[in-house]
Design goal:
It contains twelve helices and two strands; from the N terminus they run H-H-H-H-E-E-H-H-H-H-H-H-H-H. The chain has 259 residues and is mainly alpha-helical. The protein has one domain. The protein has a two-stranded antiparallel ribbon with strand order 1-2.
Length: 259
């Protein structure tokens, strides 16, 4: 059941993210969070996200725009380091509160509470749609700001794609350059946060779940290939609404200590 759910989500979300610029981490994190502690779910999601980003670099990386990549990517990497350090710090704290029901005691860990809050925020943004439509002024001037937001939230919870797409859409890029540049930035953020995660919880989680991660990565690769051929023909609004509902449900579960 675990393998089927995670691999299925990895396949479908990878199809979505190739063209929207986000979706894999947004969908895969709740799937992992249903079976693993919050900090481990973030780390495991980051592994699949990185492998998928590297694979997509082979498909579309040649279209990346170097100038945008530097202006956006350097602040993103610096902020990803900070966000990942915050996650590692949160993972070492005591529960913020406990509660009991039906003879069971539920503990709400700080990292789960923070990730739950972020999921609620991003679910609201998905339902509103304003983040993708909002304009941020003159694109070259705001690209470093977009990099900082993308990197920090990418390092903290893996929710990097929505901010990245919102800013890159206003950077004057064509479709190929938008996809290629976004993939390159995502890979840089993932490498940074995994380097930080490895200090605390990354190594053991990967060692115990290597086969599952490998299967999820292959499913994501297959989704990227399928998306490269098919997904541009589809409308994403209903999918985005489903993502938002899933985020909200899992966020409530994390916030209550159930997941």
């Amino acid at each position: 059941m675990v393998w089927l759910l995670i691999c299925g989500v990895a396949f479908g979300a990878s199809m979505l993210t190739l063209f929207t610029g986000f979706g894999l981490g947004t969908l895969l994190l709740p799937a992992f969070a249903a079976f693993f502690p919050a900090e481990a779910a973030v780390a495991l999601t980051a592994v699949v996200h990185l492998l998928n980003s590297l694979f997509k670099l082979l498909l579309v990386g040649r279209h990346a725009r170097l100038g945008v990549l530097l202006r956006f990517g350097i602040p993103a990497v610096l902020a990803a380091f900070v966000g990942a350090r915050v996650l590692v710090w949160l993972a070492g704290l005591e529960p913020v509160w406990t509660w009991s029901a039906a003879g069971r005691t539920f503990r709400v860990m700080p990292v789960a509470a923070v990730i739950a809050a972020l999921m609620i925020v991003f679910a609201a943004l998905e339902l509103w749609g304003g983040l993708k439509r909002e304009r941020f002024g003159v694109a070259p001037r705001w690209l470093p700001v977009g990099g900082l937001l993308t990197g920090f939230f990418g390092g903290l919870s893996g929710h990097q794609g929505a901010f990245r797409s919102a800013f890159l859409l206003r950077a004057g890029l064509g479709k190929e350059a938008f996809i290629g540049t976004g993939v390159a930035i995502a890979a840089c953020v993932d490498l940074t946060r995994l380097a930080v995660y490895s200090e605390r919880f990354f190594g053991a989680d990967v060692a115990r779940n290597g086969p599952l991660l490998g299967a999820a990565a292959v499913a994501a690769f297959a989704g990227a290939i399928a998306g490269n051929r098919l997904l541009h023909k589809l409308s994403f609004r209903s999918i985005e609404t489903g993502v938002a509902v899933l985020l909200a449900i899992v966020a409530v579960g994390l916030g209550l200590g159930i997941l």
